[in-house]
Write a structure and sequence with these properties.
Elements: E1 2-4, E2 7-9, H1 15-34, H2 47-69, H3 78-99, H4 109-126, H5 134-151
Antiparallel strand pairs: 1-2
Amino acid sequence: DSLNGSHWTSRNWPRWLSAPLLVAWTLMIGWLMLSTKVDQLTITQSSYVNNLGHAVVFGAEAMLLGLLWRPGLVGRPTAVWCTVGLVALAYAGLLEWRQGFVPGRTSSLVDMVTNAIGALGTPYALADGRVFCPRTLAVAAAALGSAALATWPPV
């Protein structure tokens, strides 16, 4: 993709590619969140990595939604990117709620906080147009802290 001034843009990103990627990604997240077999995956053996993954997968969900809906400057206009973040967060909430009914799985408010950091924080972080900037560091620190809180042993 290209740089437009100091802002990363998705103008060269083929919009037609966003739809199948979004569908595949959304189905994969649904499977990860609702499957009883996900515990067999090597990456889920670490509770910390598992919880940190919530921010990553829902951040990517928001980005794919945004690239499909409004190619151009990431994070601009703000209303579009806030909306896609909220849509990704609503999907996360639905899956988190549904997870409470899956044998061997639980719903967690702390997981929802990490989901929100990814879904809302990723477009916010990239709206500055740079991958490495104070916004990105703040979102990464929030995700790392939330994942740590989710795995912190009870007192």
